[in-house]
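Reviewers of the previous submission asked for a worked example of the structure-prediction workflow described in the proposal, so we include one complete record here. The input consisted solely of the amino acid sequence. No template or homolog information was supplied to the procedure at any stage.
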Amino acid sequence: MGHQIRVPGAVLAAVLLLAAAGCSGVGTGSGTGAGKAPGDDPKPGGATPSASAPAGSAPTGSAPTGSAPADAKPPSGDVLPGMVGASVARTQLAALKIAPPGTMSGYSRDKFTHWAEQGDKCDTREVILQRDGANVTRDSQCKAVSGTWKSLYDEVVVTEASKIDIDHMVPLAEGWRSGAAGWDAAKRKAFANDLTHPQLLAVTASSNRSKGDQSPDLWQPPSKTAWCQYGRAWTTVKSVYGLTVTEPEKKTLSTMLDTCAS
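From that input alone, the workflow returned the following structure tokens.
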């Protein structure tokens, strides 16, 4: 028979107490964010964006380079979304690449799908008519049947939707010859239906057709009170979409920005 080792009762009790302490979990952080460094918790509003974007959203993969800083609020009175102040617009303008107009070879308005469906039977045109008008009423098919619109370009007040055009601030053809010729169909569609940036607005049909596809050095709004907004909007759209400008175009845009109140 082997020899039995007798362990004093006091020692045995101490060993049992130490073993119990080691299993208690004290100091592991259990239930109090174990393993997290400060700042790991999700911040409000930090949810992952949806994988699909509406037709009027910014082009996929191209962050708006013309966004204003949080403290650089656009002046009051702007009628377009996504506007920046004059100082930000001047910074955008200085950064635009200068290049001669590209060829119109291959151009077709059909390559810029519009007007896109925006839900509830409404297309982009009807959304803009609602946004830019006052007291607008629609029928069951989302068509504007009454309302009042004031055209930025000529300050004319219109009460019939049929006499309103939705203008592309940077015309589709102008976009084509300044960079859009190299885009895919999805980006062209986004450009033609952009509800986020100052690319679309309701104006009189006569002023829109007078403008055509001309750049600011060739056509300016007849109402000079619109020049500040027009110059900022055109510059922002070209900046957001990475489009080029010509020397005369850039010079005229600078003149327009000079009309903005300091």
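The first strand starts at residue 117 and ends at 119. We consider this example representative of the routine output the project will generate in years two and three.
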